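Why does residue order matter? Because the sequence determines the fold. Keep that principle in mind as you read this record.
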Amino acid sequence: MLMMLPGLQPEELLTIQHITKDMTEEQQKQFLYIYQGRRREQQSLMLMTLIGFLGVAGIQRFIIGETVMGILYLFTLGFCGVGTIIDLINIKQMTADFNQKEAIESANMVHMMMR
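Structure:
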Protein backbone atom coordinates (compact mmCIF):
# COMPACT_ATOMS: atom_id res chain seq x y z
CA MET A 1 0.00 0.00 0.00
CA LEU A 2 2.83 2.41 0.78
CA MET A 3 4.09 2.06 -2.78
CA MET A 4 1.14 4.26 -3.78
CA LEU A 5 3.06 7.19 -2.32
CA PRO A 6 5.64 8.38 -4.88
CA GLY A 7 8.85 9.88 -3.53
CA LEU A 8 8.40 8.35 -0.09
CA GLN A 9 11.38 9.34 2.06
CA PRO A 10 12.76 7.00 4.79
CA GLU A 11 11.81 9.45 7.59
CA GLU A 12 8.30 9.73 6.20
CA LEU A 13 8.00 5.93 6.05
CA LEU A 14 9.01 5.66 9.71
CA THR A 15 6.46 8.30 10.68
CA ILE A 16 3.70 6.51 8.78
CA GLN A 17 4.62 3.15 10.29
CA HIS A 18 4.61 4.64 13.78
CA ILE A 19 1.25 6.36 13.27
CA THR A 20 -0.48 3.33 11.72
CA LYS A 21 0.96 0.56 13.91
CA ASP A 22 -2.17 0.28 16.08
CA MET A 23 -4.66 0.72 13.22
CA THR A 24 -6.67 -2.07 11.66
CA GLU A 25 -6.08 -2.85 8.00
CA GLU A 26 -9.23 -0.93 7.07
CA GLN A 27 -8.10 2.10 9.07
CA GLN A 28 -4.68 1.94 7.41
CA LYS A 29 -6.34 1.96 3.98
CA GLN A 30 -8.45 4.96 4.94
CA PHE A 31 -5.39 6.71 6.35
CA LEU A 32 -3.42 6.16 3.13
CA TYR A 33 -6.33 7.36 1.01
CA ILE A 34 -6.60 10.60 3.01
CA TYR A 35 -2.86 11.11 3.41
CA GLN A 36 -2.12 10.51 -0.27
CA GLY A 37 -4.24 13.51 -1.19
CA ARG A 38 -2.74 15.78 1.45
CA ARG A 39 1.00 15.08 1.31
CA ARG A 40 3.45 16.94 -0.92
CA GLU A 41 6.43 15.64 -2.83
CA GLN A 42 9.82 17.26 -2.41
CA GLN A 43 10.26 17.64 -6.18
CA SER A 44 7.01 19.61 -6.59
CA LEU A 45 7.90 21.97 -3.76
CA MET A 46 11.35 22.43 -5.27
CA LEU A 47 9.81 23.28 -8.64
CA MET A 48 7.47 25.81 -7.02
CA THR A 49 10.43 27.34 -5.19
CA LEU A 50 12.41 27.65 -8.43
CA ILE A 51 9.46 29.49 -9.99
CA GLY A 52 10.17 32.12 -7.35
CA PHE A 53 13.22 33.20 -9.33
CA LEU A 54 10.91 34.08 -12.22
CA GLY A 55 9.12 36.68 -10.12
CA VAL A 56 6.33 34.62 -8.53
CA ALA A 57 7.98 33.95 -5.20
CA GLY A 58 6.29 32.21 -2.30
CA ILE A 59 4.20 29.59 -4.09
CA GLN A 60 5.88 26.88 -2.04
CA ARG A 61 4.82 28.65 1.15
CA PHE A 62 1.20 28.84 0.03
CA ILE A 63 1.26 25.12 -0.85
CA ILE A 64 2.44 24.11 2.62
CA GLY A 65 -0.15 26.30 4.27
CA GLU A 66 2.06 29.21 5.32
CA THR A 67 -0.13 31.93 3.83
CA VAL A 68 1.43 34.89 5.64
CA MET A 69 4.95 33.87 4.59
CA GLY A 70 3.68 33.28 1.05
CA ILE A 71 2.32 36.83 0.91
CA LEU A 72 5.58 38.22 2.31
CA TYR A 73 7.59 36.28 -0.28
CA LEU A 74 5.26 37.44 -3.04
CA PHE A 75 5.53 41.14 -2.20
CA THR A 76 9.27 41.10 -1.43
CA LEU A 77 10.23 38.81 -4.34
CA GLY A 78 11.31 36.11 -1.92
CA PHE A 79 13.08 38.61 0.32
CA CYS A 80 15.07 39.71 -2.73
CA GLY A 81 15.83 36.09 -3.58
CA VAL A 82 17.55 35.29 -0.29
CA GLY A 83 14.48 33.63 1.22
CA THR A 84 13.95 31.62 -1.94
CA ILE A 85 17.55 30.38 -1.84
CA ILE A 86 17.16 29.44 1.83
CA ASP A 87 13.98 27.55 0.99
CA LEU A 88 15.82 25.63 -1.74
CA ILE A 89 18.46 24.64 0.78
CA ASN A 90 15.82 23.62 3.36
CA ILE A 91 13.29 22.08 0.97
CA LYS A 92 13.81 18.54 2.27
CA GLN A 93 13.09 19.58 5.86
CA MET A 94 10.15 21.79 4.83
CA THR A 95 8.60 18.85 2.98
CA ALA A 96 9.23 16.44 5.85
CA ASP A 97 7.71 18.80 8.42
CA PHE A 98 4.64 19.44 6.28
CA ASN A 99 4.11 15.74 5.53
CA GLN A 100 4.52 14.78 9.18
CA LYS A 101 1.86 17.32 10.17
CA GLU A 102 -0.45 16.03 7.44
CA ALA A 103 0.11 12.40 8.49
CA ILE A 104 -0.90 13.21 12.06
CA GLU A 105 -3.99 15.11 10.88
CA SER A 106 -4.92 12.26 8.52
CA ALA A 107 -4.61 9.73 11.35
CA ASN A 108 -6.80 11.93 13.57
CA MET A 109 -9.41 12.06 10.80
CA VAL A 110 -9.42 8.25 10.56
CA HIS A 111 -9.84 7.94 14.33
CA MET A 112 -12.71 10.46 14.30
CA MET A 113 -14.48 8.56 11.51
CA MET A 114 -14.32 5.33 13.50
CA ARG A 115 -16.08 6.76 16.56
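The helical segments are 10-20, 25-38, 42-51, 59-63, 67-80, 82-89, 91-113.
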